[in-house]
């Protein structure tokens, strides 16, 4: 039913954030409570994504206690004691696999007319730190945070999917997170020079095929406004809007946020250990 689909879509978001907490990097701690799923990530300060938790469907909004991260994501239109972060809401979407009939279009030619990427590209495993850095570039984020957080994931339920460009570098990628009979799609990104060529459709299609092969019933994701038309064409249905509500930040606290430079010293060793800890087989952006 619709409520169950909405539940899956919001829990899948909370679980990928909890994966960041499971790394324990720089004080990160996963939050898995009956009323909230996500993580505390001190190095990200007041960021509404990695330092956040979701409120599961059918759960009363929790009291604002110290065990909750800076931001709560919910389908509700208000959270007592918190302020909405306007303009960054996400559309929760679900694909029911027994209704899936989409075939991605051929990858289109480059601007100069050359077919530098095959019309039906090979899907490969993209290293997690590389996918994090690609997301930073795709969404205009300061370099460092996502390379650290995504690169540090150790969860064996996570697989990455990517497409290489003509020089061998990855130019599109995403995460697939296997949760019971659901497969969650996260951190879809395409390098700017390769957008509008159907690459993301091929990557998400590969995750959908992996979900079907694993016996899943659904695939879930959270779409940005740019990604919404892509996923709608693929057959994903909207089941709700996720809205972020953050704790008020006093001016003096805003000046005392952790800095990226304070965390970089251990980055190379941490990401190396984290990437090698997952033995991967040879798993929200517009095209």
Number of strands: 11
List the total number of helices. Answer: 7
Rg (CA only): 18 Å
Strand content: 15-25%
Distance between the termini: 30 Å
Helix content: 25-40%
Main pleated sheet: 11 strands, mixed
Average pLDDT level: 86
| Secondary-structure element string | HEEEEEEHHEEEHEHEHH
Class computed from helices, strands and strand pairing: alpha+beta
Return residue spans where pLDDT drops below 50 for at least 5 consecutive residues: 252-287
The gross shape turns out to be: globular
Name some characteristics of this structure.
287 residues, 11 strands, 24% strand, alpha+beta, eleven-stranded mixed beta sheet
Description:
The chain is of the alpha+beta class. The chain is 26% helix and 24% strand. It is built from seven helices and eleven strands. Strands 1, 2, 3, 4, 5, 6, 7, 8, 9, 10 and 11 form an eleven-stranded mixed beta sheet that branches. The two termini are 30 Å apart. The model is unreliable at 252-287 (pLDDT under 50).
Question: Short summary of the structure?
Answer:
The chain has helices at residues 2-22, 128-138, 145-151, 199-213, 228-234, 251-254, 267-276; strands spanning 29-33, 36-40, 52-54, 71-74, 83-84, 90-96, 158-164, 170-179, 182-190, 218-223, 237-246. It is α+β, with helices and mostly antiparallel strands and 287 residues long. Strands 1, 2, 3, 4, 5, 6, 7, 8, 9, 10 and 11 form an eleven-stranded mixed β-sheet that branches.
């Amino acid at each position: 039913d619709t409520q169950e689909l909405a539940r899956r879509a919001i829990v899948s978001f909370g679980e990928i954030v909890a994966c960041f907490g499971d790394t324990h990097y720089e004080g990160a701690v996963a939050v898995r409570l009956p009323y909230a799923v996500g993580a505390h990530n001190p190095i990200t300060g007041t960021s509404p994504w990695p330092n956040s938790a979701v409120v599961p469907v059918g759960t009363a909004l929790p009291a604002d206690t110290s065990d909750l991260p800076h931001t709560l994501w919910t389908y509700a239109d208000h959270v007592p004691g918190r302020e909405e972060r306007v303009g960054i809401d996400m559309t929760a979407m679900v694909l029911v696999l027994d209704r899936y009939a989409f075939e991605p279009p051929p990858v289109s030619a480059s601007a100069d007319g050359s077919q530098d990427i095959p019309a039906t590209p090979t899907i490969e495993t993209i290293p997690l730190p590389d996918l994090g850095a690609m997301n930073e570039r795709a969404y205009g984020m300061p370099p460092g945070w996502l390379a650290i957080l995504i690169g540090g994931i150790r969860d064996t339920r996570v697989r990455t999917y990517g497409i290489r460009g003509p020089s061998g570098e990855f130019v599109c990628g995403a995460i697939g997170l296997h949760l019971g009979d659901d497969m969650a799609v996260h951190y879809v990104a395409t390098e700017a020079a390769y957008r509008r060529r159907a690459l993301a459709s091929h990557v998400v299609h590969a995750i959908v095929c992996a979900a079907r092969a694993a016996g899943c019933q659904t695939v879930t994701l959270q779409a940005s406004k740019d990604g919404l038309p892509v996923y709608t064409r693929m057959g994903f249905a909207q089941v709700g809007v996720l809205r972020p509500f953050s704790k008020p930040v006093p001016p003096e606290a805003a000046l005392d946020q952790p800095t990226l430079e304070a965390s970089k010293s251990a980055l190379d060793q941490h990401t190396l250990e984290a990437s090698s800890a997952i033995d991967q087989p040879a798993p929200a952006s517009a095209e």
